[in-house]
Amino acid sequence: MADASVILRAYFPDEATPQAQQLMLDYARGQVNLYAPRLLFLELFNAILVAARRGRIDRPTLHRLAEEVSLLQIGWVDVENHGNQILALGKELSLTSYDASYVLSAQLKGCRLVTADQRLYNATRHRFPFVLLLENYQKAKS
Questions:
Q1: What local confidence, expressed as pLDDT, does residue 14 receive?
Q2: Contacts of 61 (CB under 8 A, 6+ apart)
Q3: Are the CB atoms for 111 and 1 separated by under 8 Å?
Q4: How far apart are CA 24 and CA 32, in angstroms?
Q5: Cβ proximity of 141 and 27 under 8 Å
Q6: pLDDT (tens digit per residue) in 90-123
Q7: Is residue 140 very low, low, confident or very high in pLDDT (cuts 50, 70, 90)?
């Protein structure tokens, strides 16, 4: 599982990191699966729109990125019926409901959550060892 901060670092040239690109390459090769709450789709599209408005990407790039994001085969994790858990995580760890949704999704799927968000990582690393900071991501084993 990866949050929006990771996927954006794979797609935006001015944010690219080798670890994010490796994760997406591992995904393309079928070595890792992507799971996320449905809000990921909206976060990615919003980031693409904002990048276009700010002149970070041109119109053809906007459309290419939107198409690539639309083609991602993400396994959606339904967290909508877990509002109390999301609120509890948010309150306990001072997370946004968005971040708490990612943590809960990984917990429900029993998988790692890769994030480039240092604040999210710092807030969760002691209680949830399945949260991995992007810079520590290593190539998936074949």
A1: 84
A2: 52
A3: yes
A4: 9
A5: no
A6: 999 999 999 999 999 999 999 999 999 999 999 9
A7: confident
Cα-Cα end-to-end distance for the chain: 18
**Closest by CA position to 23, among listed 12, 37, 9, 13:** 9
pLDDT score of 141 more than 90: no
What HEC string does the chain produce? CECHHHHHHHHCCCCCCHHHHHHHHHHHCCCCCCEECCHHHHHHHHHHHHHHHCCCCCHHHHHHHHHHHHHCCCEECCCCCCHHHHHHHHHHHCCCHHHHHHHHHHHHHCCCEEECCHHHHHHHCCCCCCEEEHHHCCCCCC
Place of tokens 């935006």: 12
- Residues near 11 by Cβ (< 8 Å), separated by ≥ 6? 65, 68, 69
Read off the amino acid at residue 113: L
pLDDT tens across 35-58, in order? Answer: 999 999 999 999 999 999 999 999
What is the number of alpha carbons within 13 Å of residue 138 lying toward its C-beta?
2
- With beta carbons less than 8 A apart as the criterion, state whether 105 and 78 touch: no
Cβ–Cβ < 8 Å for 131, 120: yes
